């Protein structure tokens, strides 16, 4: 199999599969490929167990062409790179190759399907966060992988089982993708806060911002007759109700909802700090689009979209919880304080 987009998710998932005995090749940028070729890879699972993969075990590429014989490709580029990934893989892969999109957002698999009509493209969800640099990657929140259930997925399921990676197969992944997107509405808030996920989520002001963004999305989804799945111990609607609770109460409840390592921060924070384009159009942008389609206002998601675009354009600064809450409250009130 092949990991297309060796980064946090690609190296962690692909590395775990490789350590579990699967035949895995990696396609990545020269910077990442060179680091893997020099240092190998250290993987730390959520329980803290470390696996070291020595340099000799890696088959690394910077182009898609050498992996023409892969029977399964995991696409792990950001949504900003999906189209380019699809184009790089088109004409390279054999027909019937299984392509699994392990990406946030809703539309990546559809883009890949369009560009790779002879392949079987399956949408997937990575529930957990991965942090790390080019040599060490750590699973930093609890959760597993979730992929569309098709018989073609059997070899991947076997590889996951051998690697100790949790995989859930679902007939319809769309409700889980939307549930993940609701959680990902925290990505811009985390990125704008400049804090780790743990620090950010421990502050009520930021959680209030997330609850507003989620409630707007939930209202738009309800009108679209989309029912998001329950990925965490509490479902999406209850989550939006629990978030604004006072810090003491939230702390007591949060541990049971999702476990977060102190080093974890959102993938959008990584992009924003590195000066890369973020996935904001695929997260808040998706909510705004659905809202427009069904006539549900989404001012908080619109404002987050603008704030992240401004930060991408060079106006990045760290927003305190009070500042961001006031900013989004103004947006909710139509610009009035
Ligand atoms: N990080 C996380 O904790 C989580 C991420 N996700 C989702 O998983 C997906 C992957 O995220 P993540 O692993 O963080 O992303 P990363 O940016 O860490 O990794 C993607 C890598 O792929 C490279 N890449 C992009 N296009 C190509 C190409 N055409 N050829 C070769 N390499 C390429 C990127 O390089 P470059 O940057 O130069 O383009 C980057 O190094 C995203 O949709 C994200 O939202 C989901 C759950 C958690
Ligand atoms: C942190 C997490 C797991 C949820 O927001 C994530 O998906 C990301 O970093 O993109």
Question: What is the element layout, followed by pairings?
Answer:
Blueprint: E1 2-4, H1 8-19, E2 25-27, H2 30-39, E3 41-44, E4 50-53, E5 59-61, E6 72-75, H3 82-89, E7 98-102, H4 108-115, E8 120-126, E9 130-132, E10 136-139, E11 145-148, H5 154-163, E12 167-170, H6 174-184, H7 186-193, H8 197-201, H9 204-223, H10 236-242, H11 247-254, H12 267-273, H13 284-294, H14 299-315, H15 321-332
Helix pairs in contact: 1-5, 3-4, 7-9, 7-12, 7-14, 9-10, 9-13, 9-15, 13-14, 14-15
The chain binds NADPH dihydro-nicotinamide-adenine-dinucleotide phosphate (NDP) and ketopantoate.
Question: How would you portray this structure in words?
Answer:
Pathway: Cofactor biosynthesis; (R)-pantothenate biosynthesis; (R)-pantoate from 3-methyl-2-oxobutanoate: step 2/2. It is an enzyme of class 1 (oxidoreductase). Catalyzes the NADPH-dependent reduction of ketopantoate into pantoic acid. The chain is of the alpha/beta class and 337 residues long. The protein has 2 domains: 170 residues, NAD(P)-binding Rossmann-like Domain (Rossmann fold), CATH 3.40.50.720; 157 residues, N-(1-d-carboxylethyl)-l-norvaline Dehydrogenase, domain 2 (Orthogonal Bundle). It has 15 helices and 12 strands. The strands form 2 sheets. Strands 5-2-1-6-7-8-11-12 form an 8-stranded mixed β-sheet, sandwiched between helices. A 4-stranded mixed β-sheet has the order 4-3-10-9, covered by helices on one side. Strand 7, helix 4 and strand 8 form a beta-alpha-beta unit. Helix 7 packs across helix 12, helix 7 crosses helix 14 and helix 9 packs across helix 13. The chain is globular. The protein starts with a strand and ends in a 5-residue tail after the last helix. 48% of the residues are buried. Ketopantoate (KPL) binds next to helix 6 and helix 7.
């Amino acid at each position: 199999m092949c990991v297309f987009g060796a980064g946090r998710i690609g190296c962690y998932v692909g590395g775990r599969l490789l350590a579990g005995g699967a035949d895995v090749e990696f396609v990545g940028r020269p910077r990442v490929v060179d680091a893997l070729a020099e240092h190998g890879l250290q993987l730390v699972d959520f329980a803290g167990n470390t696996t070291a993969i020595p340099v000799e075990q890696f088959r690394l590429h910077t182009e898609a062409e050498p992996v023409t014989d892969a029977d399964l490709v995991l696409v792990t580029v950001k949504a900003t790179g999906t189209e380019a990934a699809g184009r790089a893989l088109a004409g390279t892969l054999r027909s019937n190759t299984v392509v699994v999109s392990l990406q946030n957002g809703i539309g990546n698999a559809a883009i890949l399907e369009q560009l790779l009509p002879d392949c079987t493209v399956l949408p997937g969800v990575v529930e957990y966060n991965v942090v790390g640099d080019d040599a060490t990657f750590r699973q930093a929140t609890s959760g597993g992988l979730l992929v569309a259930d098709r018989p073609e997925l059997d070899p991947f399921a076997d590889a996951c089982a051998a690697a100790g990676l949790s995989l859930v197969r679902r007939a319809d992944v769309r409700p889980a993708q939307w549930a993940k997107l609701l959680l990902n509405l925290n990505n811009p808030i985390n990125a704008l806060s400049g804090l780790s996920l743990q620090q950010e989520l421990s502050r009520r002001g930021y959680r209030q911002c997330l609850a507003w963004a989620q409630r707007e999305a939930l209202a738009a989804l309800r009108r679209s007759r989309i029912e998001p799945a329950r990925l965490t111990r509490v479902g999406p609607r209850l989550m939006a109700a629990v978030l604004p609770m006072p810090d003491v109460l939230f702390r007591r409840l949060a541990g049971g909802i999702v476990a977060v390592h102190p080093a974890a921060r959102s993938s959008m924070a990584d992009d924003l700090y590195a000066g890369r384009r973020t996935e904001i159009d695929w997260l808040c942008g998706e909510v705004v689009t659905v809202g427009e389609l069904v006539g549900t206002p989404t001012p908080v998601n619109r404002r987050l979209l603008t704030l992240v675009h401004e930060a991408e354009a060079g106006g990045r600064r760290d927003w305190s919880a009070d500042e961001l809450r006031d900013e989004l409250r103004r947006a909710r009130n139509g610009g009035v304080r």
